[in-house]
Amino acid sequence: MPTSTILGTGMAVPDRIVTNDELSTMMDTSDEWIRTRTGIEQRHWVSPGETGASLALTASTRALDAAGVTPDDIDAIVYATSTPDHFAPGNGVYLQQQLVGRPIPALDVRAQCSGFIYGLSVADAWIRAGQYRRILLVGCEVQSTGMDISTAGRDTAVIFADGAGAVVLGASDRADRGVLGFDLHSDGSQAERLWVDAPGSMYHPRISQEMVAEGRHFLSMEGREVFRNAVVKMPESVNTLLAALQRSPADIALLLPHQANLRISEMVQKSLGLEPGQVYNNIQRYGNTTAATIPIALDECVRAGRLREGDLVVMTAFGSGFMWGSAALLWG
Ligand code: UT7
To answer: Which of 95, 166, 198, 265 is the most buried (most CB within 10 A)?
Structure first.
């Protein structure tokens, strides 16, 4: 049975940088509050003309270049996003059209902050099954157009942001490299703690002026509850996965936690008994880009030369759904 290995990575963020000081001109917040509570110093937001599809295209082109393959080599697309350009279809088809051209399958995965890990599990399963040999996997998000950029929305507006990360996965015959396994969960009883209520097909019409006036189209979050769960569920998931693989946290060369809050990542690190050097954080520069945080972090680590052949890389995420989980792979 083939294993799947990462052949190349890429990322893209919008040109516009939004600093904490700029946010404090739009709402009652401060650089000090945002840094202390979240670790975030700046983030990127799209400008008119930049879309999820355009960010994904740039990130994907870079991943293909890094992998040394062309769009003709891609057999399928898996596209993780909770913020597609339109209600329907998903965004994978735009990459199919703009990057590949041939009518290959394109699957959108809606698992929010855990989207990249869920997407990786699907792509890995397709490769192991022998169905496809090279898959483009994207995590991409445009959150800025769906946030309440005022004091009423400050708990989310200072955190969430835009960006894309992509990897090319390829089938390999080496059993000592590539994806090792996953630990995946969900709990829909918590769905409304971090969600976008509307537009929704349960409403007639799906969105109305009244709903917009009430702000039901904005991302809304019960931050403390999400925080409380995130710091427990991510370490639990990593430990479950490592136990199944007969490994321990000490074996981790690099942990890529979902970038939701620097305090969350630090608590996850301590809970797992890891050294700071085993964990990568870049939320300071990008904020929380939901499904894109992990592939962006991975691309930065790869380009900085942080990974060596055979390194154990673990990814973990927690977010809206609630959905959470972890993935482990041997680099190379
Ligand atoms: O991506 C997946 C999931 N997302 C997360 O994992 C995020 C999880 N949650 C968090 O990161 C944190 O809960 C937040 C950063 C959202 C909030 O931090 P907190 O330490 O939990 O603050 P809080 O919600 O308890 O609010 C403390 C105070 C409140 O004021 P009062 O009621 O104490 O007077 C808030 O109104 O801070 C206020 N506040 C702000 N003040 C300045 C909330 N947002 C802001 C803000 N600027 N942006």
So the answer is: 166
